[in-house]
Design a protein that fits this description.
Elements lengths: L17 E2 L22 H6 L2 E2 L9 H8 L3 E8 L9 E2 L3 E2 L5 H11 L3 E8 L5 H4 L3 H15 L3 E6 L7 H17 L4 E7 L7 H13 L5 E5 L7 H20 L3 H6 L1 E6 L1 E2 L5 E2 L1 H13 L4 E5 L7 E2 L22 H10 L32 E3 L2 E3 L15 E4 L2 E5 L16 E6 L30 E4 L4 E5 L16 E6 L3
Parallel strand pairs: 2-3, 3-6, 6-7, 7-8, 8-9, 9-10, 10-13
Antiparallel strand pairs: 1-14, 3-4, 4-5, 11-12, 15-16, 17-18, 18-19, 20-21, 21-22
């Protein structure tokens, strides 16, 4: 059962905490109309972090895009009018027909090659599913939002107090299904509270309702926080439990369930005084990418900056995280997800989306540079790797006489280092093979460590004689060669 602690969906007071010096909180430049949406891959909508453009000291979204490479954002929240009725408003107070702030923000994002999704619902407030009365009326209200902003994606964030209202949830899911049918290619996500068991009783009822009407969104996402969670291990456990619920309630096989599962986290201090740090986001990211999850996002970009003091201040803010960080640290994880994950296309889509269609504006071209550099392994035509450059997935560089290809967005990860496993070694410039295959009879791979968290694709050595082992998915503490998990693939004796 959802609890009253899910306050992260409300506009939180920011006067109690002073923002760190130098933090930019300016709104996007004024604009009366948003440009036509860009044709982004669905993976960007799957990675879109939540942003409140009208509450919680909105950040300069242009600066966020430049610093992280993130292209899509989840604008929150559409509600019913505070006085009642069935017309969409921002936060219950600003009708979409007269609001001027949101078009300005959308214009800025689309002007930089990005796009937006809009989230309806959230925690607190009155939802359209409660006031519109029928599926058709609810769908018509949301269609106004889709048409107004030319949306390619929409999120149904189904929480309190609507979450426990059977008819309201039926209206919301029925409306989501109608939007999906009437707007081919529309990316529809459904977000709900998470528990240590995956989700609560009302969450399973939500799944049963979706199954009964034949509704399959791009994903069902849980929020594993504010429920007694302790770090990433508890979140991963909840996601595994939710995976089981998707199998049993939706009737999917395991692979299909992962392909329609998502996670929505909260950065820093939560409403329930839980703390989630950058390392927790990395662990969940590794799990999400290695299991093929369809969505990875968080609440919220407004909070993705350091408070003053940075941590242990005993307070919750809607405008900073209450943990030590650099500005936009957590948004960089959603950008990484967009560079590595390939969720299935939304239902009714006539095309299959794979990798992002465009690279972050801060990234270099993925084509080899025309400059060359001489090295013992031959002539490297790719540009030399730079620790200060942000690279998108597919970018090609040269380093230590080898050519390397980025698997996803990265900055500061040294090619050949095993910390992130982001760079694919293409071998010595001009030929000569890959350094990931050690010479016969030798093993230059990192030793397996029971305390290290490995992502899918990580390569280690273990055993006597030393064998090369490759992780199939995220793992920690599973001994290579053990039959208990089957996570490690034996590549044979090193060099053989």
């Amino acid at each position: 059962m959802a609890t009253a602690s899910l306050k992260r969906r409300l506009a939180l007071p920011v006067t109690a905490l002073a923002l760190a010096a130098g933090t930019t909180i300016a709104l996007a430049a004024n604009s009366s109309a948003a440009p036509s949406p860009n044709a982004l891959s669905s993976v960007w909508y799957a990675s879109a972090p939540y942003l409140m453009p009208e509450d919680n000291s909105p950040p300069d979204v242009s600066a966020v895009m430049d610093a992280t490479g993130q292209k899509a954002f989840q604008l929150a929240f559409i509600l019913a009018p505070n006085g009642g009725g069935c017309s969409p408003t921002w936060g219950g107070t600003s009708p979409i027909g007269s609001d001027s702030t949101i078009p300005s923000v959308i214009s800025t994002i689309r002007g930089k090659g990005g796009d937006v999704s809009v989230s309806v619902g959230g925690y607190g407030g009155t939802k359209l599913g409660q006031t519109c009365g029928t599926v058709a009326a609810t769908a018509a209200a949301y269609q106004q939002v889709v048409d107004k902003y030319g949306l390619k994606a929409i999120d149904f964030d189904l929480e309190e107090p609507e979450y426990e209202n059977t008819q309201a949830i039926a209206n919301e899911l029925g409306a989501a299904q109608a939007l999906q049918k009437n707007n081919p290619g529309l990316y529809v996500s459904v977000t709900m509270p998470g528990t240590n068991a995956g989700t609560g009783w009302f969450g399973t009822q939500l799944l049963d309702q979706a199954k009964s009407i034949g509704f399959t969104p791009a994903n069902f996402s849980i929020m594993p926080f504010d429920g007694g969670f302790s770090g990433a291990a508890a979140q991963v456990s909840a996601l595994e439990a939710f995976h089981g619920l998707l199998v049993s309630h939706m009737g999917w096989d395991s692979t299909t369930a992962y392909q329609h599962e998502g996670v929505s986290m909260m950065n820093g201090r939560t409403d329930a005084s839980e703390y989630f740090y950058q390392a927790d986001f990395q662990t969940v990211l590794d799990y999400a990418t290695s299991h093929g999850l369809a969505r990875y996002t968080y609440w919220s970009v407004n909070r993705d900056r350091q408070c003053n003091p940075p941590s242990n201040n005993g307070q919750l803010s809607g405008a900073c995280s209450s943990v030590p960080q650099n500005d936009w640290d957590f948004t960089k994880f959603t950008a990484k997800f967009a560079g590595v994950a390939t969720p299935p296309p939304p239902p009714n889509s006539s095309t299959t989306s794979t990798s992002p269609s465009t690279s972050p504006s801060t990234s270099p071209s993925t084509s080899p540079s025309t400059s060359t550099s001489s090295s013992p392994g031959g002539t490297c035509s790719a540009a030399p790797w730079s620790s200060s450059t942000a690279y998108s997935g597919g970018a090609i560089v040269s380093y230590n006489s080898h050519t390397w290809t980025a698997k996803w967005w990265t900055q500061g990860d040294t090619p050949g280092a095993n910390t992130q496993n982001v760079w694919q070694d293409n071998g010595a410039c001009g030929g000569g093979g890959s350094s990931s295959t050690p010479p016969a009879g030798t093993c230059t791979l990192a030793l397996w460590n029971s305390a290290t968290a490995y992502s899918g694709g990580a390569v280690v050595q273990y055993g006597t004689p030393a064998h090369k082992w490759t992780a199939k998915w995220w793992t920690q503490g599973d001994t290579p060669g053990s039959n208990s998990s089957g996570v490690w693939t034996d590549g044979g004796v090193c060099g053989s």
